[in-house]
Amino acid sequence: GPCTECSCSCGKEADKDPSHTKKKENGDQSCVPKIFFGTRTHKQITQISRELKRTAYSCVPMSILSSRDYTCIHPVVSNSSNRNEMCVELLEGKHGKSCSYYHGVHKLTEHHALQPVCQAWDIEDLVSLGRKLRACPYFAARELMVGADIVFCPYNYLLDPQIRDSMDIKLKDQVVILDEAHNIEDCARESVSFGVTESQLRAAREELDVMVNNNIRQEHHEPLRAVCCSLI
User: Fold this and answer.
1) How far apart (Å, rounded) are the C-alpha atoms in residues 41 and 156?
2) Number of domains in the chain
3) Where does the Helicase ATP-binding domain lie (predicted)?
4) Could you tell me the sign of the dihedral formed by the alpha carbons of 71, 73, 78, 84, in that order?
5) Domain holding 42: CATH number?
6) What is residue 33's three-state secondary structure?
7) Residues 124, 129, 131, 136, CA torsion sign
8) Mean pLDDT throughout 197-210?
9) Rounded to an integer, what distance in angstroms lies between the CA atom of residue 178 and that of residue 189?
């Protein structure tokens, strides 16, 4: 028989409650879990959303999480090499400027083309609509995640704890699907790895030398200096 918990049931409208909370007969509350679908690349997300359009679940509330590299449409920030930092500076108004695209997010999240009654969409659809409405696709996708039944994203959004926190992704009691899961080891390794050059190591060692020689928190800085020396 038809499912009764999700928004596709019998063609009824999506639950307006962003937490998708359903009340039981005894008055308790139970949350319908989201499906987090992780892929290796953004291109694969496009392929999967295309397949979703062909299923009976094409109109289910959804969202696609991706980096600013793919979704930022600010004319200055999008052409910068450090989009994340520039975006944060604009949002904080550090230089007396703000992002008008961010303030127009509601125009994108409330647009009929992204509502559950319409078909599944992909990143290109979201960015194209964002340019048309002058609204930020990056933050719109995060807003849409709140009421989504299924959320597509790259692996590292689910595996990297720092990204999970920054994107406010809560995986407890949710459904997680990992496409081509044999790539998970490499992704997990990358999420806890860091690249550093020899010149950076030498600069760090010089600074640590000054700290140790001037007896500044020597018990902490001396072991760090030893690590730098051994790596060099």
Assistant:
1) 10
2) 2
3) 1-228
4) negative
5) 3.40.50.300
6) coil
7) negative
8) 93
9) 16
